[in-house]
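I'm stuck. Please check this protein.
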Amino acid sequence: MSTNSQILDAVKDRDLASKQGILQKLFAVWFDAFIYNQIWEDPRVDLEALELDKNSRVLTISSGGCNALNYLLSEPESVTAVDLNRHHIYLLNLKAAAVKHLPAHEQFFEFFGVGKSENADEMYKQFLAPNLDEGAKAVWDKRIKIFKKGGLYDHSRNGYFLRVFQRFARLIGCRPDAVLNARSLNEQASLYRKNIKPFFNNFLIRLVGRMPVTLFGLGIPPQQFDELTRETDAETTIIDVYRERVRRLACDFPIEENYFAWQAFARKYDTEKRKAIPEYLKDENFGKLKSNIGRLRAKVGSVTDEIKTQPHGSFNRFVFLDAQDWMNADALTELWSAIAEKAEPNSRLIFRTAGAESPIKTRLPQTLRENFVYERDASDRLFKQDRASIYGGFHLYILK
């Protein structure tokens, strides 16, 4: 089965001849490409929910691969990263090869912290290409030039999307990156009101923001757009939902360490102070990352298939990103039935949703749902701590 077909199967919940079905088909075509150059789920929140220890065996959807590497810093027994999008696995494979084979942290940071290097071609040919699998090598042989042309964080479809909107913001007199210079939360709020909030009042933004295809650039499928619209009412539009989430991103967490805000507003990390960067990129963590990289396994595929085909007890920590929003009731039932059958008691599962509510409440049969405990208080508390701020809900379940 082609990657495009697998993605369509994952997002399809309507007749392909319907309006929603056509949008889902378009999204599947769009998503079969290099979408994310970094992950948009906060690992600090994940790690508190997962409670990783030396016996933890993590199964996670890869996306940009950052959090799979972040989890390794807690020294679990294993981390398995899967993704239907082969380009994300190729990026994670490149990162893993870089951890293992680049001479020192500084070269690693050039590639994935700065996102560009004048010596990218030479380092790739000497240290990385010989240590990649055939599929990843074929792609990166052609793509390695992005590390010299613009840089990693200017590329990927998510990167292109952010670049377009940041340039448009400047054309209408907004400067989203100004908030990165703030020295306090009060100053962040002031700079947000001046340089970001007016962006959402622009006629063109209010027009295109109502179109589901606009959010394809953020990797948001049509059914997640529908979830977002459910938060609207007579007085609240979808634009208001976007604006509030961007406000949280810009104002609710210290900008000096919120690397999600740096990427959203400037497509970069703080490469000078190196505080607003993921933990896996920090110099003081490189030795531990290098010593644990052998515990990582990455492969193209679905979490459901991975659980069903592995022995009982292979995983006891599950990270589903926002995939539960993508799945219809049958797909969710298949996935959670596999977990109930194959996982050990007290396994912990986390995911995020576009809206506030967990789809598990309404889409799973009650007899299956009764196998899991929903940690609502912890979920609500951790949601408020998520620095990425792009989702409407965070959810933690524990297998009885």
Summary: Strands lie at 57-61, 78-83, 296-300, 317-319, 348-353, 372-374, 393-399.
